[in-house]
Amino acid sequence: MTTTSDGFVVAVDKPVGPTSFDIVAALRRVYRERRVGHTGTLDPLASGLMLVCVGPATRLVPWLTDADKAYRATISLGRETVSGDLDGVDAPVVADAAARARALSRADVAAVLSRFVGEIDQVPPAFSAIRVDGQRAHERARAGEVVEMPSRRVRIDALDLVEWSPPDAVVDVRCGKGTYVRSIGIDVGRALGVGGHLSALRRTAVGDWSVDAATPLDALVRSPEAARRLTPAEALGSLPVYRPMGRALDDVLQGRPHVSDGTVGLSATRALDPSGRLIAIVSCRDDGRVYVDRGFGAASA
Predict the structure, then answer these.
(1) Burial class of residue 121 in the structure, from the number of CB atoms within 10 Å of its CB (0-12 exposed, 13-18 middle, 19+ buried)
(2) How do residues 122-142 score in pLDDT, each as one tens digit?
(3) Which of 28, 130, 201, 222 has the fewest Cβ atoms within 10 angstroms?
């Protein structure tokens, strides 16, 4: 099976178990295409939406990776693990943590969740793919090293308590790039004084794309033609649109800066040709000119 000249993006509903690399490897086999890349890692114990770029569409990965994400997470209180998830080794907590966790009220949990909404400094878990001194943190942690993880500034837009069934809090999370939901579980548990970890995690949205529109991995492998293929323009649907005409269209195709007509802002914008095909990612600079941040060229004849 071959890709189109621009490639495409597939919305996959990842099951619990496979790694993100396993999903990429499966799609390489399905589409017989070496150039396949995902747009945001999901842990093996997590399920949900992965946008996977195929063929030339792998050029979209940086912009799709930057998109906001949404998750439904189950934070189990009364036990903390070093990895922040269900399979991790226990970390020390207070002796009566389990009992104290079950005694918490819904209001107690909701009040602490609200403290983590906004821009916060977050320490990623040591069992993560972040590089520390040139090596993956999880590789060093699994080798028995104590890894000091640097904090990072992240943005959490919402932490909504959907269900409280002591000691489990089901939470809807909306957040920006680079946020570790496992760290949210650890931090909330510590703030409540009982410890916490994630016992379930499902990604429900990436940008404007919902998991409801995704194809389960097993169904895609059985019947690749059943999965919807998003064009590059569709996949970046959350970005604003610029439709250059005449000389401006030529300028975009040739990668030349040109004077803005006022419709392009400072943020990344999709430049579409008259047929609706994505030809570039552009943005306006302080000098009032439109610059091509990434060109995708004219359509093949």
Answers:
(1) exposed
(2) 988 766 556 655 565 555 556
(3) 222
Instruction: Give yes or no for residue 155 having a pLDDT over 80.
Output: yes
Q: Which DSSP state fits 85?
A: B
Looking at the chain, the number of H-run helices and the number of E-run strands are 9, 20
Alpha-carbon dihedral of residues 97, 100, 105, 109, nearest 10 degrees? -20
Maximum Cα interatomic distance, the chain, rounded to a whole number of Å: 72
Supply 242's token pair: 């610029």
- pTM here is 0.89
Contacts of 15 (CB under 8 A, 6+ apart): 47, 216, 217, 218
Q: Which two tokens stand for residue 268?
A: 């990344």
Give CA 191 to chain center in angstroms. Answer: 26
- Catalytic (active site) residue 68: no
Instruction: Give the domains, in start order, of the chain with CATH numbers.
Output: 8-67+208-235 (3.30.2350.10), 69-206 (3.30.2350.10), 241-295 (2.30.130.10)
Q: For the purposes of burial, counting CB atoms within 10 Å of the CB of 217, is it exposed (0-12), middle (13-18) or buried (19 or more)?
A: buried
Of 43, 85, 251, 273, which one is the catalytic site residue? 43
